[in-house]
Specification:
Layout: E1 4-5, E2 16-20, E3 24-26, H1 37-50, E4 56-59, H2 66-72, E5 79-83, H3 85-93, E6 98-103, H4 108-120, H5 127-139, H6 145-152, H7 156-164, H8 170-177, H9 183-189, H10 194-203, H11 217-228, E7 230-231, H12 266-269, E8 274-275, H13 278-297, E9 303-306, E10 317-318, E11 324-325, E12 334-338, E13 347-351, H14 375-406, H15 413-427
Helix pairs in contact: 1-3, 4-5, 5-7, 6-7, 9-11, 14-15
Length: about 425
């Protein structure tokens, strides 16, 4: 293709031409901010040897809004660069004085869209740059996500995921730009708050120096899910209850539930909707328990806090083996108020009296406060505890022996990490 040289005269729209570098002004709306120094140096070397082979996209002064003119500093004799910022930088580094361009007729919205689409067609665009570009289309030009996805030729999930990356903490962004973590890691981190992200980064030693490779994105996601998520299907309160905690509103319309963040919780979608705010979930649990406790005590009967577990550590709670469900009119009956598990907040009619002639023999070690129970039960529990301790020691020794065998073996870091995690999880817990 033949380029036409010009010095300062008018530029014909859509024609491929060669212009002096001095006439180009970079757009303030450039969606590309993050580049690789190594890749930039490689491009500059290529341009020095062969020149700029692919024209840069530009637009004329009269196509730019006054606001954009003020930001870019574009004058009547200047052209605004829409796409090709790395090629322009490489041309400058290579000492070129002119570059080939293609002049397009575009308004501000079309120019931004063209820059984003052109960047997406290149392999080295950073996901954070994509995120900012999509956000500008949505926030400044009022496009909906489906419209943006159609314009850039990507799925709606892809656009949602890129937009979510804007919620990365400063520390996570730094690691991401430095290629210490991958996009897959970043998409797991944005499921929690910036404060939680920083704690996860420290605990998982993401980006840490040394031979140890970072935790895989899969293990990171599983760890985040176990630590920070709560399954809403087991919540004992109604999800549309706006009066439980009026300050935060109902769960059904909360922006922190996975269903309100499409494209980001694809793995969790098959397991039911989750709450990503553990503190709020805990606060609602306490509010629900207080409400249910008040209702249970209004009948005038003795109210006991009962657990669905055998080892609840709270002293005032009656553990699962220390009460039995009885008939409501039984003389030994008390109101049992469930404090944990999927039935938290529910009331049962129970007997927890170890001296009860009818139910006492069915009871185990008693409440957390008394630690009672018969000698046979205590002996059995001691034997089981000893057995568990022996099994744990044996499994730990097995894990150490396996790891010793692997010492110095040329295993990939990811395989070694997965194996170590599996051994210690399976054999030492």
């Amino acid at each position: 293709m033949r380029f036409t040289d010009i010095e300062g005269g008018p530029v014909s729209t859509t024609e491929y031409q060669t212009i002096p570098l001095a006439r180009l002004v970079e757009s303030a709306a450039n969606p590309r901010r993050i580049t690789s120094k190594a890749a930039d140096a490689e491009l500059a070397d290529s341009v020095k040897k062969m020149g700029v082979l692919e024209p840069l996209l530009v637009r004329r002064f009269d196509q730019i809004s006054p606001a954009a003119q003020a930001l870019s500093g574009v004058g009547p004799e200047r052209l605004e660069l829409i796409a090709g910022h790395r090629r322009l930088a490489a041309a400058r580094a290579a000492g070129l004085t002119e570059v080939p361009v293609r002049v397009l007729e575009l308004d501000d919205e079309q120019a931004l869209e063209a820059a984003i689409v052109e960047n997406l067609q290149r392999q080295d665009v950073h996901p954070l740059d994509e995120a900012e570009g999509f956000a500008r289309l949505i926030e400044h030009h009022k496009h909906a996500v489906p419209d943006v996805a159609a314009r850039v030729g990507k799925s709606e999930s892809y656009v949602y995921q890129r937009l979510a990356l804007r919620r990365l903490s400063k520390k996570a962004r730094t690691l991401f730009v430095a290629e210490k973590i991958t996009a897959a890691h970043a998409l797991q981190l944005v499921k929690v708050t910036p404060e939680q992200q920083d704690k996860i980064i420290a605990d998982a030693r993401l980006g840490a120096h040394g031979d140890r490779e970072p935790m895989s994105a899969r293990y990171l996601g599983e760890d985040i899910q176990r630590t920070f998520f709560q399954t809403l299907s087991v919540a004992p309160w109604k999800l549309d209850d706006a009066a439980l905690l009026p300050a935060v509103g109902p769960c059904s319309t909360c922006s922190k539930r996975s269903g309100a963040q499409p494209g980001l919780f694809l793995d969790e979608a098959t397991k039911g909707e989750v709450c990503t705010d553990a503190k709020c979930f805990e606060a609602k649990s306490e509010a629900h328990l207080a409400r249910a406790r008040k209702a249970a005590s209004s009948g005038g009967k003795k109210v006991l806090e009962i657990s669905s577990e055998y080892w609840n550590q709270k002293k005032s709670v009656v553990n699962k083996d220390a009460y039995v469900v009885v008939a409501e009119k039984a003389p030994c009956a008390s109101v049992g108020f469930m404090v944990d598990g999927p039935k938290a907040g529910q009331s049962l009619t129970v007997c927890a009296d170890p001296k009860c002639k009818e139910h006492g023999k069915k009871l185990g070690h008693g409440t957390g406060t008394t630690g009672g129970g018969d000698a046979t039960w205590k002996k059995k529990q001691a034997a089981e505890a000893k057995k568990r301790k022996t099994e744990k020691a044996t499994r730990a020794a097995t894990a150490e022996a396996v790891l010793a065998k692997l010492a110095g073996k040329p295993l990939p870091g990811a395989v070694r990490h997965a194996l170590v995690a599996a051994l210690f999880h399976q054999f030492t817990t």
